[in-house]
Design brief:
alpha/beta; 6-stranded mixed sheet; 5 helices
């Protein structure tokens, strides 16, 4: 709840049917991110978001490649692709937001889920994020606000990428994949995936000693 400075990271359900795919993207493979709504942000915020998300995902074994919303698909494969939408004004605007409590039911980021399957469509609700960060971040200098805002966006996206890439609705006990964030989590110097999330994100190593391995599920 807002009084405790926490936000629930939930998955939004949409009416769409799709077949279940094999879990996990091979470690080290690129994750192609098609970004919509970047015109509502600023270069400094987007640079901070990109830098932080690069660190977060590299730790899990992924390389983020950014594309504009209008860029044609590269052919890398749907399992390597996430469509991200920035909703609202995605920049540090805290003066008005600080006076408006954030309903605890409003998640700052979500991904689409159908029939228990997480789809590669994620978004950040920047109106909710502004109101969530305002009580703490509004006291910072403007340059620092931009850095912290972009960092917060990256951690929210890292959480959603975990759901998409690991193909799971489950959360981890701590770290970026946990179910609830505090403002301290979003603004801290360092936040990463813990072991449970990393195990879900990284594929199992091949078993040596045979010239054949399981083809998977």
């Amino acid at each position: 709840m807002y009084a405790r400075l926490t936000a629930t990271l939930c998955l939004h359900f949409v009416f769409f049917c799709a077949a279940r795919a094999d879990s996990g993207v091979p470690a080290g493979d690129p994750v192609e991110v098609y970004l919509k709504g970047q015109e509502t942000s600023t270069p400094d915020v987007l640079a901070a978001m990109s830098s932080e998300l690069k660190v977060v995902m590299e730790e899990a074994g992924y390389r983020v490649i950014w594309h504009g919303a209008a860029d044609p698909p590269s052919g890398a494969g749907a399992e390597n692709l996430v469509i991200v939408e920035l909703r609202g004004v995605c920049m540090a605007q805290f003066s008005d937001a600080a006076a408006k409590p954030l309903p605890w039911t409003v998640p700052p980021a979500s991904s689409s889920v159908v029939d228990g399957k997480v789809l590669p469509f994620s978004w950040v609700d920047c109106t909710a994020l502004n109101r969530f960060l305002a009580p703490v971040a509004s006291t910072k200098l403007k340059a620092e606000q931009d850095e912290l805002y972009g960092r917060s966006m990256a951690r929210l996206l890292g959480h959603e990428f975990y759901h998409v890439l690991a193909r799971t609705n489950d959360h981890a006990p701590s770290g970026i994949a946990k179910a609830r964030f505090s403002t301290a989590d979003l603004l801290a110097d360092h936040l990463d995936f813990e072991s449970v999330a990393l195990d879900r994100l990284r594929p199992l190593p091949a078993i040596r000693g045979s010239d054949e391995i399981s083809a998977g599920r």
